Amino acid sequence: MNIGRVLGVAALVAILSTPARAEKDPTPWYRGKYGRNRVVHLSLTVSLGLVYLASETVLKDDLTTPSCRWCEPPAFDRVTRNALVWEDKKRADLLSSIDAYVVAPIVGLGLLIASEADASPSRIIDDTLPVLETVAISQVITQIVKFSVSRQRPYAHFADGEPLYTTDDNASFWSGHSALGFGITASAGLICHWRGYWTEPYVWGAGIALSLSTEYLRIAADKHYLSDVVVGGFVGIGAGLVIPRLMRREL
């Protein structure tokens, strides 16, 4: 697991372990009609999160293929890649992971939590759980598509000589970083809009800026083509606008 994902998990743990604010409702968050729903959705989110982590670590060798099914990029992908790729690809890769797995969750979830100073734990869970479930579902779907499509990453395609195969070589389509950034932004922005939170414009503004910079950096790192990040972004936006709506009556 790369450093970006490790830092991202640490950031989420830090946010979710923040001491709860004063409880207005004497009913515990896990009791009653909505409490049971919270437990169900929290269990689903954690389970899918573990599936994602397993697919990135212990199962990746079994899920990836040593040969690409989609190898040749179209002309527009080739042109944008050549125009935007950095010489220091590792730096761009690190910055993109920090953007997506650290800064974006801190901004999206942090602004949600800060939106109402005296919110109860139940309210905080109802605000943040749709965002986390959006991320969990969209990232698992992303993994399924990545391993099924098996598109060769640009760094492997344009390598000088015969590249050494790694399990990450054929996982280019679509970009999980892009889906993550836009998924957090769209779902957190939607929650802020429903609640009438003062933080809504900041969630949209900062989230979109971070997500676009992540997409640029993924191309600069030679990890993705333009089509990968654009489709990943639309997947994140779609998940962020649909999944919280499906959860709305239950939380």
Task: Briefly characterize the structure.
This protein is an all-alpha fold. It is built from 10 helices and no strands.
Structural notes for this entry:
- With 251 residues, the chain is mainly α.
- It has helices at 3-16, 32-56, 60-63, 75-84, 89-114, 121-149, 154-157, 176-195, 200-220, 226-247.
- It has 10 helices and no strands.
- The model is unreliable at 13-23 (pLDDT under 50).
Which structural category fits the helices and strands? Answer: mainly alpha
How many β-strand runs? 0
How large is the share of residues in beta strands? Answer: under 5%
Shape: globular
- Which stretches are poorly predicted, pLDDT < 50 over at least 5 residues? 13-23
> What's the total helix number?
10
Estimated radius of gyration: 19 Å
Largest sheet: none
**Secondary-structure element order, N to C:** HHHHHHHHHH
Which whole number gives the mean pLDDT? 89
Distance between the termini: 33 Å
Share in helix: 55-70%
Question: What descriptors fit this protein?
Answer:
mainly alpha; 251 residues
Give me the secondary-structure topology.
Layout: H1 3-16, H2 32-56, H3 60-63, H4 75-84, H5 89-114, H6 121-149, H7 154-157, H8 176-195, H9 200-220, H10 226-247
Helix pairs in contact: 1-5, 2-6, 5-8, 5-9, 6-8, 6-10, 8-9, 8-10, 9-10
